[in-house]
């Protein structure tokens, strides 16, 4: 019997090739989109899942006086971990992690620059489950000057030799030697902590003694292991008393709040946390869920196509149902047969979907900057999930058609009388078409506003020039020869100007406490963003001054330039005073100097955040972390060659790295761009699948009304009249879909745009353009079949029964 069902199903599919193709293509595209998004979601959800302990990251909310808003930071104070463990039994263990970027390691004649290393407490391997291939995890990091290498790093430094017990040396502003005490397995990609080697933090105790015991300095990450069953909310309520205990009886402790984030949530739920240097491929979990939701919508649209076309063509199988029932077939048997046909069609679509997903993976990986793989046979969970998806799609798509077809009464259908109301069937199909196109229109509107917002952030004037500027990272060694490098590059026709700064614009900068002493007022203390710059920084970046003057050579380290936001904050008690009244007032960081200039506000952070208060000062001795080189138009290749050559002469042992400022800002908005592109692609698929459904329904409608069309043509109806007759009904449904989708889209976009400090307006014309576009798309889709029917020879249609 099953064999008979299979034959029948195959014959029906082959008999209706056009409609079967529409169903299979629609389902395969929907499933391919779901499979691709499923791979991304599985990857994102797998971050840090290999750690088994109850690990939380300790973070801070800082709310200093003078700052327009509080800010969350991933950093914490060095003594916190130890003090928390001593005071609260809920905290079983802790470890601290400090990062090192571009760290040079030397073993005999081999030299290696690692991109990311970490300094950690000896408890690091007790808390985290990073596998130690060689060595004892209990003692590997106990002694100062111990280091663990990953397998890849060990191979680069020592080849096939056993590195345990051997010495590696770091040559920098200081010289430190480390003994290799263990080999770690290479860190998996789905780990927020990425490193090539692990150093014992105790190696730096003597050098960092002041910082290690300082309450108020935030410069590392603290992770704690909580006891099972710990009430985290209750623990957080104890933190104000903890801060007050260790930060003294002054007001300083009130400027901080502590909060705990589960390690498994850090990767996807901390997009509002700044200074998050150890969070690899950080991505908003809400965007991941949005991708999954839209992919499901695309798949549902494909399922709706199947239901619509199957119920529309139900009359063609009514006699089959009547005959089967008349010879004893039960309704459940018929329903099972029709469901089996649907599942078989879904499995056929799955094969095509897997091919599509496999072919699209290189593009998906490039877009997402992940390394996703469709490894079905090495990942049984994924294989089971995908197969289950196909079966579920088949069952959901075929459930209503199966129940509908199996309900026919044999006496009526064999007489040519349908047992169900044609009006109710048409009403359901209309509702499904409206739902389909309503979803597609909603996604179209959302895509337009997402793209417009991203373009607005990228193109909006940030208040400074970022074209043709290349930045070169400096470390403790290279920054000492900043003046020499600047001198070697100056005077060349390819280079317009050179400057230095503590940070690159577009990144989250440090905050510092400052003092302000007005001429006739009390000293005021507040906190604000700071930026150490060279004297010509404002000139190179074309940052305008609204009052005062730039840095002078005589006032080195004693002059301060503040932005308009800080000027407004300083004058909040005297709102009628002009910003220029601040010029010459005492202001300082560490020691008081004077305010010499007020810079026009500029977006030194991303457009997600409003412009905060900030000040700039010029203390070169503190070192610059970035050199900025302004390149003359058309001289990019020449300038880069010159910089690389001069760098190699001054720093033969240091690798040369650079990045253009506009490229850096593309990185700043990378996650937004990814969301925009993925939503656009899924929207395109939703529209395409919806059009496939319209094409099928229009084709069937024209087929069922072929005699009516013939009669109308004989009586004088024009091609335009026939096309309008066949298209008008569907166009009304598309317009209704627009009316339903508009308020939903407006509400969703209004809420989404609230997350941006600088945002576009929701213009009415976007809704009108999308409506017009949806009508045109539907009309083009329907007209293909309508025109074909309208120009057919009426004699043929009237001659045939």
UniProtKB/TrEMBL annotation:
| Pfam families per record | FtsX, MacB_PCD
* MacB-like periplasmic core domain: residues covered: 20-239
Topological relation to the membrane, as annotated: Multi-pass membrane protein
User: Where in this chain does the record put each ABC3 transporter permease C-terminal domain?
Assistant: 293-410, 681-794
Q: Which UniProt keywords apply?
A: Cell membrane, Membrane, Transmembrane, Transmembrane helix
Give the InterPro entries listed for this entry.
ABC3_permease_C, MacB_PCD, Macrolide_Exporter_MacB
Q: Which PROSITE patterns match?
A: PROKAR_LIPOPROTEIN
Identify the domain of life: Bacteria
Cellular location(s): Cell membrane
Q: Where are the membrane-spanning stretches?
A: 21-43, 290-309, 334-357, 382-405, 426-451, 678-701, 722-744, 764-784
Q: What is this protein called?
A: ABC transporter permease
Write down the species.
Mucilaginibacter defluvii
């Amino acid at each position: 019997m099953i064999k008979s069902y299979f034959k029948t199903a195959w014959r029906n599919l082959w008999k209706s090739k056009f409609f079967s193709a529409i169903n299979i293509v629609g389902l395969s595209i929907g499933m391919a989109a779901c499979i691709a998004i499923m791979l991304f979601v599985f990857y994102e959800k797998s971050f840090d899942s290999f750690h088994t302990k109850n690990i939380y990251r300790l973070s801070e909310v800082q709310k200093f006086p003078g700052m327009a808003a509080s800010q969350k930071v991933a950093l914490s104070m060095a003594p916190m971990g130890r003090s928390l463990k001593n005071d609260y039994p809920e905290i079983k263990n802790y470890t601290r992690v400090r990062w090192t970027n571009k760290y040079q390691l030397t073993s005999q004649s081999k030299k290696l620059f690692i991109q990311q290393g970490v300094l950690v407490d000896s408890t690091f391997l007790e808390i985290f489950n990073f596998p130690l291939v060689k060595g004892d995890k209990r003692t590997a990091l106990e002694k100062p000057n111990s280091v663990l290498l990953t397998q890849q790093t060990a191979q680069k430094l020592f080849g096939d030799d056993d590195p345990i017990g051997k010495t590696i040396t770091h040559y920098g502003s200081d010289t430190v030697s480390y003994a290799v005490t263990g080999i770690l397995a290479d860190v998996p990609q789905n780990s927020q902590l990425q490193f090539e080697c692990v150093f014992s933090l105790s190696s730096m105790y003597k050098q960092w003694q002041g910082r290690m015991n300082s309450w108020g300095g935030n410069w590392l990450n603290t992770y704690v292991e909580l006891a099972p069953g710990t009430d985290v909310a209750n623990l957080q309520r104890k933190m104000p008393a903890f801060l007050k205990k260790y930060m003294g009886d002054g007001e300083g402790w009130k400027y901080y709040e502590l909060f705990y984030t589960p390690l498994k949530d850090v990767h996807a739920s901390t997009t509002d946390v700044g200074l998050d240097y150890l969070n690899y491929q950080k991505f908003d979990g809400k965007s991941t869920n949005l991708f999954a939701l839209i992919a499901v919508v695309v798949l549902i649209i494909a399922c709706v196509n199947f239901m619509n076309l199957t119920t529309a063509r139900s009359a063609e199988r009514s006699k089959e149902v009547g005959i089967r029932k008349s010879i004893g077939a039960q309704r459940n048997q018929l329903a099972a047969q029709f469901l089996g046909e649907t599942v078989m069609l879904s499995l056929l679509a799955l094969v095509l979907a897997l091919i599509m997903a496999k072919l699209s993976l290189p593009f998906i990986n490039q877009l997402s900057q992940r390394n996703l793989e469709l490894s079905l046979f090495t990942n049984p969970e994924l294989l089971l999930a995908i197969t289950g998806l196909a079966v579920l799609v088949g069952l959901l798509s075929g459930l209503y058609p199966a129940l509908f077809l199996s309900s026919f009464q044999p006496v009526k259908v064999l007489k040519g009388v349908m047992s169900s109301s044609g009006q109710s069937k048409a009403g359901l199909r209309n509702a499904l078409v409206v739902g389909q196109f309503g979803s597609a229109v909603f996604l179209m509107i959302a895509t337009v506003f997402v793209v417009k917002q991203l373009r607005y952030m990228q193109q909006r004037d940030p208040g400074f020039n970022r074209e043709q500027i290349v930045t070169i990272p400096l470390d403790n060694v290279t920054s000492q020869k900043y003046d020499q490098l600047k001198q070697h590059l100056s005077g060349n026709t390819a280079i317009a100007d050179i400057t230095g700064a503590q940070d690159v614009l577009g990144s989250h900068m440090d905050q510092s406490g400052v003092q302000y002493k007005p001429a006739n007022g009390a000293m005021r203390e507040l906190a604000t963003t700071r930026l150490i710059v060279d004297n010509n920084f404002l000139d190179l970046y074309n940052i305008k001054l609204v009052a005062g003057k730039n840095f002078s050579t005589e006032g080195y380290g004693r002059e301060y330039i503040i932005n308009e936001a800080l000027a407004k904050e300083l004058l909040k008690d005297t709102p009628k005073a002009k910003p220029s009244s601040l010029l010459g007032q005492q202001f300082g960081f560490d020691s008081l100097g004077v305010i010499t200039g007020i810079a026009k506000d500029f977006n030194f952070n991303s457009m997600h955040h409003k412009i905060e208060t900030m000040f700039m000062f010029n203390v070169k001795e503190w070192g610059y972390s970035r050199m900025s080189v302004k390149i003359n138009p058309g001289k990019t290749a020449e300038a880069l060659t010159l910089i690389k050559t001069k760098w190699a002469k001054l720093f033969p042992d240091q690798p040369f790295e650079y990045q253009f400022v506009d490229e850096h800002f593309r990185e700043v908005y990378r996650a937004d761009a990814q969301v925009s592109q993925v939503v656009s692609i899924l929207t395109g698929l939703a529209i395409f699948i919806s059009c496939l459904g319209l094409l099928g329904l229009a084709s069937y409608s024209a087929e069922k009304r072929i005699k009516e069309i013939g009669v109308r043509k004989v009586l004088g109806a024009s091609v335009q009249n026939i096309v309008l007759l066949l298209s008008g009904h569907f166009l009304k449904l598309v317009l209704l879909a627009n009316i339903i989708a508009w308020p939903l889209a407006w509400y969703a976009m209004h809420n989404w745009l609230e997350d941006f400090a600088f945002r576009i307006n929701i213009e009415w014309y976007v809704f009108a353009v999308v409506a017009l576009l949806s009508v045109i798309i539907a009309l083009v889709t329907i007209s293909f079949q309508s025109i074909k029917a309208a120009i057919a020879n009426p004699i043929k249609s009237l001659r045939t029964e």
